[in-house]
Amino acid sequence: MKIFSIYIKIIFFVLITTITSLIFLDRIVGNKLNDIYQGWNYKGYRGLIKKEKKVDHLRIAVFGGSVSAGYGLNYRDAIPYLLEKKLLKKKIDVVNLGRNGLGIYGILHDIEDYKYLKYDIAIIHNGYNDCTIKGYNLNTRNNNLIYKYFKYLTILDVYLPEKIHLLLNKEDKNALDNYYKKKEEQIKIKYKNNPNKNLSSYTCKAIFENKKTKLIVNKKKFINHLETFSLKKYNEVLKYLVKTKKQIFVIIQPKYGDDPLQKIQSKLIIEMSKKFKEVKIIDLSEKIDLNDPKISYDRLHNTKAGNELTVKILLQNLNNS
């Protein structure tokens, strides 16, 4: 029994040491990626951990996908941080709750999960990731089981595969882009017999840019598809925010081209948002030119200059409210 007891203690010690080391390494990697192009702190959002909100301060939470998160940029060049720099003198801080690939379903989880931040103002920067003709965007931080049960969002599981691929392809300047293209191809093969689950192949932007597609979109079916899920979830988000007495700003994202599907989606979001008197709509569809390389580096995600322009427009609306 003594030997058995010693073994148990050794196993317990090794387990605790391993878990502690992994958490320590995970935090280091998270901080590193925050300062490069993507990443988050252990609470699951970009930037530094926010302290308890001061009594005489206001807090803005920015919810959305990779554009609001600042994908491809240091978190200090993302919309929320640039906005905070302009507002700190007014005793307002900003939390970056954007996440790559996140749609309104994920935002619906976030407005509840992050209520402990005691945000007063909610900015919903959403659209691209929910503009689909088939399938639904079920991306959420809660898909990570550790976050779901412990509210700790790991990053090693994202970083390590990327790092290994980069090390194996040191001479390839586009190694990371090729890595994700390869993953996309694998998803297509995996869901070849069930295309509904291959969401990315049916995003409005992908269809609009793929001139060879033979897919014909029925406008009525497209509207019904949006109303069935994404607009329904959007309505739930706004209802929750109204119920919890938040000040709400809904951003209509910039056009990535003359896509009729995106126009339909934006129009529906505007019509729905107008039903809530507490909501202020900020329509960026015509105000930011994603074809300008100074504004967007890939005709979707902003450069720092593009984010500064967005912040300038946001400030005009915030100051008038």
Give a brief description:
The protein has 321 residues and is of the alpha/beta class. The protein has 12 helices and 5 strands.
Description:
The protein has 321 residues and is an alpha/beta fold. Helix content is 47%, strand content 10%. The chain is built from twelve helices and five strands. It has helices at 2-34, 66-69, 79-87, 104-113, 145-150, 156-168, 175-190, 204-209, 219-228, 230-243, 260-273, 304-319, and strands at 58-64, 92-98, 121-126, 247-252, 279-283. A five-stranded parallel β-sheet has the order 2-1-3-4-5, sandwiched between helices. α11 (260-273) links the parallel β4 (247-252) and β5. α3 (79-87) packs across α12 (304-319), α9 packs across α11 and α10 (230-243) runs parallel beside α11 (260-273). It is globular. 31% of the residues are buried. The mean pLDDT is 90.
Keywords:
single chain, about 325 residues, alpha/beta, 5-stranded parallel β-sheet, about 45% helix
